[in-house]
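Budget justification aside, the reviewers requested a transparent look at the raw inputs and outputs of the sequence design task funded under Objective 1. We therefore reproduce one unedited record. The lines immediately below are the structure tokens for a 379-residue chain.
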């Protein structure tokens, strides 16, 4: 990370209009540790450091220079980290001239992702930099990217629903077992998956499985959880060739709806080769869970689908939180849990247009695998 940061700095100061004597760093989560370390190791290069959702660093009263810490009120562990760092850095003060200014800002009603787009947090950063460089405060910009991102997603989902009459969905079949078995499988799946990861963690370090920080362990969890749900709740039929084709169509829809603009807002969506090689493995691990979800919702009314979405969201998020709590090294999963209900909702809406269990299972698994490959850091 430090080498990458140095490369970025050299590229930045070569640009016209950039004053190398007035530069600052801002980093989020893992990036917060990188920018604090850079500010400590190269104090003459940077005049301010902003650490959002901070991890850790060897801060002091003098280094890094002009340190601002931010954390969301809904990410308690990072609030605690920020308060500890502030104390180690000498406490709050506004000695910008000597580079010893320090502050902590707790941003209300945001968690680990939404803090990046919060206007209050952004205004505070602009104010901190303005004071660092003795500039007039030019706050007033509002980051509207996520609003446009939301409209983009809604547009694709509207297109999918409008196209439903043209798509050859399959009739509901008897491949579902009794409803109580479907719900029992959904409930037991996370418990079995969490228990297995807890046992495996006694012998193996799962935090870097498949070369992804926690992402590989999440793939194991999805495989086991989905396998239990599928085995208890359904009797999968052999897929027809055309349903596989429609599954690819669903993947393309989800990839365009949730992915493309993510590249320009909050996530590196286009996979580099090292990540792309993991995609097939992560997809296979995601098939049982998504196939079971496809069977559960197949042919259902709006309310049936809404009920399964709500049940999935509560149970899956609860299972992931349980895993993060009891399996060593899995704590970072809590950070992605709040986004899962949104992903499941988009899959459910888009999948209803195709309305075929295998199309739903394959398309959603391809998307899930891509999302995991894109989201979690390489180790």
């Amino acid at each position: 990370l430090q080498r990458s940061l140095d490369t970025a700095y050299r590229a930045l100061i070569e640009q016209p209009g950039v004053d190398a004597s007035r530069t600052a760093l801002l980093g989020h989560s893992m990036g917060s540790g990188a920018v604090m370390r850079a500010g400590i190791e190269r104090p003459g290069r940077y005049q301010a450091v902003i650490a959002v959702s901070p991890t850790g660093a060897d801060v002091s009263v003098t280094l890094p220079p002009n340190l601002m810490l931010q954390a969301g009120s809904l990410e308690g562990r990072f609030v605690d980290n920020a308060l500890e760092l502030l104390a180690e850095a000498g406490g709050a003060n506004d000695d910008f001239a000597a580079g010893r200014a320090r502050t902590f800002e707790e941003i209300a009603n945001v968690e680990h992702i939404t803090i990046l787009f919060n206007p209050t947090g952004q205004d505070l950063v602009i104010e901190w930099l303005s004071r660092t460089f003795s500039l007039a405060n030019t706050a007033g910009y509002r980051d509207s990217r996520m609003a446009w991102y939301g409209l983009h997603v809604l547009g694709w989902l509207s297109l999918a629903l409008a196209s439903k009459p043209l798509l050859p969905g399959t009739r509901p079949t008897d491949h579902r077992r009794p409803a109580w078995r479907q719900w029992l499988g959904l409930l037991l799946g996370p418990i079995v998956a969490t228990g297995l990861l807890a046992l495996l963690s006694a012998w193996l370090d799962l935090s870097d499985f498949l070369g992804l920080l926690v992402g590989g362990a999440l793939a194991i969890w999805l495989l086991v959880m989905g396998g239990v749900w599928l085995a208890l709740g359904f009797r999968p039929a052999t897929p027809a060739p055309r349903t596989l084709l429609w599954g690819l169509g669903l993947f393309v829809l989800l990839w365009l709806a949730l992915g493309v603009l993510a590249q320009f807002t909050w996530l590196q969506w286009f996979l580099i080769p090292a990540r792309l090689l993991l995609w097939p493995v992560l997809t296979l691990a995601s098939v049982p869970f998504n196939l079971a979800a496809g069977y559960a919702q197949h042919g259902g009314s709006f309310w049936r689908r809404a009920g399964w979405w709500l049940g999935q969201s509560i149970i899956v998020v609860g299972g992931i939180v349980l895993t993060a709590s009891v399996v060593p090294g899995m704590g970072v999963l809590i950070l992605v849990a709040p986004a899962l209900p949104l992903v499941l909702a988009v899959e459910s809406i888009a999948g209803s247009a195709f309305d075929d269990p295998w199309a739903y299972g394959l398309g959603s698994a391809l998307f899930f695998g891509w999302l995991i490959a894109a989201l979690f850091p390489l180790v």
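The chain has a mean pLDDT of 90. The longest strand covers residues 67-72. Computational costs for records of this kind are itemized in the attached budget.
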